[in-house]
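REVIEWER CHECKLIST
Item 1: Sequence provided? yes
Item 2: Single chain? yes
Item 3: Sequence as submitted:
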Amino acid sequence: MTFVINILFAGLFQASVLFLVAAGLQLTFGVQRIFNLACGSVYALGAYFGITVTTWALSKGLPVHLFPLALLGAGLLMGLIGIPMERILRTIYRRPESFQLVLTFALVLMIQDGLRYFWGSEPQQLGSLAMTYGTLTFLGVAIPTYNAVVIFTAIVIAAAMAYFLGHTSAGKILRATAENHETSAAMGVNVTRVYWLVFALGTTLGTIGGAVVVPTAAASLNMGVELVVGAFAVVVIGGLGSMIGAAVGAIIVGLISAVAVFVYPEVETLAVYLVVIAVLIWKPSGLVGRNNL
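Item 4: Structure as written out by the authors:
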C-alpha cells in the first residue's frame, strides 16, 4: 500500500505541473492554431525567475511560510512575456505550419541563451524550502505538504479555467474565436486582442508551472526541453486542442512516469511514448478528441 500511495502522489504532482504547461499549449493551439515549441522555455523562465524573486523577497523579510506567494507572483509577472512573443508570432498566423515551428524553435534558442546570460549555466535551486510545511500523513505514508499544495493549486486553476471557458462572456468569445475567427471578427470581436490575451494566458500557465516546481527540483538549462517531451505526450494522448484532454493526458503521463521511476527509471520516456504510439494507432485524435476548449 505504501508503494502505491507514493506512486499516486508522485504521479499527481508531476501531472499537476504537466497540466499547467500543456493547458497553455492547448489554449494557444485551440484558438490560434499555433503549436508553440517554446512552451518548455517559458516554463524554464518561470522557474529561474521564481528563484530570483523568492530569494529577493526572503532577503527583504518575507516570512518563509509565505514563499509560495512569491513564486506565484513571479510566475504571473513573467507570464507577461507572452505579449511580445505573440506580437512576433502574429506575422506568421496565415503562413504554413512549418513557419510556426521554425519561429517558435528560434524562440526556444533565444530564451535558452537569455537564461544562460542572466543566470549562468549552473543549476539554480531554493534549498530545502519545499519542506517548510513539513509532511502530512495519508494512510500511514508521509507526503510532503508542499507537493499536496501544488496538486491542489493545479486543481483550482483547472476548475477556474473550466468556469472561465464555459460560464463567462469572455470565455464564450474565446471559444467562438476558436471555432471560426473570421465569423467572430465579422460579428465585432476584436480577434487581435483575443489572440494576445490567449497567448499571454497560455504563457502565464507555463511560467506558473515552472515557478511552483523549483522548490522540489533544481532549475537547469535543459529543464524546458525535458518538459516539452512530457507536454507533447500529454497533448497527443489527451487530444490536441482539448483542455479536458490536457487534464486526462497529464494524469496518465504523470502516473506512468511515476511507476517507471519507482520500478525501472531507465524506461521512463520509453514507457510514456509506448502509450503515445498506442493512442496514435488506436485513436489519432486523442482520448478526448480535438477542439473541445
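Item 5: Key structural point noted by reviewer: Residues 19-220 form one domain.
Item 6: Recommendation: ____
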